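Sanity check

After download, print the first record. It should look like this:
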Amino acid sequence: MEPAQLQALLRLLDDPDPDVQAHIASVLRGLGEAAIPALEQEWLQTTDPATQQRIEQLLEELQLDLVAQALHAWRLEPSQPLLPALLQVARLRYPALDLMKYTHAYSRLVHTAWLSLQGASDPFEKVLALNKHLFVQERFQPERTRPQAARSYFLHELLDTRHGNSFSLSVLYYLIASELGMGVSLVGIGERYLVRYFDGLTHFYVDPYQRGSFLLAVQLQEVLRRVGLSDNLAHYRPLSAPYVILRLIDHFTQAYAAEGETSKARLYAQLRERLDAQLGVGTLSGA
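Expected structure tokens:
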């Protein structure tokens, strides 16, 4: 679409006719990301609150389209790395998020962690070395004040502030340990996320929210019995990459709803609905 045509279309944003508004939305969504700068400029220029609200709604719809499309394309990749998808989910809240900046920050962490593991041989030595690197040298810390706040789930916030909740810390720990070939998986148990190591003989769990403390399988079973959860560890299956993303989206939906941010909660709920349709999955039961 020519710039003059786009401007003419945007001048109709205050038209009360629902059919006109539906046509505008259809054309802009067809343009995709290319329509965003023009909408943002129009928002700055208009003084009509109703038109500004309509533009904000259109921007949200466009961003939802872009994130859903990016996650769908990510899911179709055979290698399916998790980090890009985590950052795409964040873009629904932060459209201008600098993906390259946080990809580089993560890559630096992986490299420095690799250096810290030199000389470590068995799984326990590797965990202790990684713990020292992340929680002493890099100073990652558990968020104790508001661990269920939405911001505590964002991976880029964790990289910036070094504070995260059980989900974000465990996901970061799992990603780095996986890159280092440590043979780990990510599991969700109750309200906590743990990193699991199992090689057929050695079986233990790492809790990044507790600065990397670890439990042998029998110790975890005892803890689970005390809190009234099933001690059958086979029930807590490793989370696949798509289910990690779905759980993250659900966490955002619940966190924003609890914070009274209904529009943000609605956006993430809509993203979940789209991904359910794309991925052919329903609830997270047993995931």
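If your output differs, re-run the checksum step. Summary of this record's structure: DSSP finds twelve helices and six strands in the chain.
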